TrEMBL record:
Pfam name, any one: 3HCDH
GO process terms (BP): fatty acid beta-oxidation
Pathway given in the UniProt record: Lipid metabolism; fatty acid beta-oxidation; Lipid metabolism; butanoate metabolism
Protein's name in the database: 3-hydroxyacyl-CoA dehydrogenase
InterPro entries on file: 3-OHacyl-CoA_DH (IPR022694), 3-OHacyl-CoA_DH_NAD-bd (IPR006176), 3HC_DH_C (IPR006108), 6-PGluconate_DH-like_C_sf (IPR008927), 6PGD_dom2 (IPR013328), Mito_3-hydroxyacyl-CoA_DH (IPR052242), NAD(P)-bd_dom_sf (IPR036291)
UniProt catalytic activity: a (3S)-3-hydroxyacyl-CoA + NAD(+) = a 3-oxoacyl-CoA + NADH + H(+)
EC numbers: 1.1.1.35
Source organism (scientific name): Glutamicibacter mishrai
């Protein structure tokens, strides 16, 4: 079962990176989003990734060719009509995912495998909406895919071995290092390590122990890490941080409220919008 024609549902920060990573490794790929306005933002993100890939891999011509090959559409029927693999990267909201998969299953061919990139929801939470549980699993990407190239593959009790191995092969063919997650685990491997770290930082901020810049500086000086937790929040995107924190304990919910009122409502979503906890060119 070789997966060639790929569709990515959701063209936000990570969805756009998945599109570019797939195209850069020579596979045809279509990006779907719900409106022309969303697709205009996606086009700008994809344009900005040309320089990232050209610099990292040292092949500007290949980066330009990858960008030129990516199709964008707001027509789901067209986007998935000939897809071997659909990678879902819509917001971390179970209701949105339910609506997306119910629509998707009516358009996609029976052969199509569905993979969620959800960071926080288990695939088994989503599987009942897909209409094809044996052909559904998770393929989780890290941000800045071209250099942080893990591909965490996690199935459910219903996922067929054929679908699982096909997605592992797809991950390898698109420049990822497949991480075989042997059983369902909220947060997979990467986020099981990362989320508690970020949560600890958010609690320090909400409890007024230190400000964001001080917390970041302390972590970087004390460990030699390239990024502090609030720089990571900006990279991941504050919308994602908000969705995760709003389902946590009382302190996490206070952090979610802080994100909403002081950042998200002001259009400050992190690196993607040029400002979050920090300002970016």
């Amino acid at each position: 079962m070789k997966l060639t024609n790929t569709t990515v549902l959701g063209t936000g920060v990570l969805g756009s990176q998945i599109l570019f990573q797939t195209a850069y490794h020579g596979l045809p790929v279509i990006g779907y989003d719900i409106s022309d306005a969303a697709l205009q933002l996606a086009a700008a993100r994809l344009d900005s990734l040309v320089d990232e890939y050209a610099s990292f891999f040292g092949d500007p011509a290949k980066a330009q060719a990858a960008r030129a090959s990516i199709q964008l559409t707001s027509d789901m029927a067209y986007a998935v009509g000939d897809a071997d693999l659909v990678i879902e990267a819509v917001p971390e909201d179970l209701k949105i995912k339910e609506e997306t998969y119910q629509k998707l299953s009516s358009f996609a061919p029976q052969r199509t495998i569905f993979a969620t990139n959800s960071s926080t929801l288990l695939p088994s939470d989503i599987s009942p909406f897909t209409g094809r549980p044996a052909q559904f699993l998770a393929l989780h990407y890290a941000n800045n895919i071209w250099k942080n190239n893990t591909g965490e593959v996690m199935g459910t009790a219903d996922t067929s071995s054929e679908a699982y191995e096909a997605v592992v092969e797809f991950a390898e063919s698109t420049g990822l290092v497949p991480i075989r997650v042997l059983k369902e685990q909220p947060g997979y491997v990467l986020n099981s390590l990362l989320v508690p770290f970020l949560e600890s930082a958010s609690h320090l901020l909400v409890n007024e122990v230190a400000d964001a810049s001080t917390i970041d500086t302390t972590w970087k000086l004390g460990t030699g890490a390239p990024y502090g937790p609030f720089e990571i929040y900006d990279i991941v995107g504050l919308n994602t941080a908000y969705h995760i924190s709003s389902h946590g304990d009382e302190t996490s919910k206070k952090f979610a409220e802080l994100l909403k009122t002081q950042y998200i409502d002001q259009g400050k979503l992190g690196v993607a919008t040029g400002e979050g906890f920090y300002k970016y060119n």
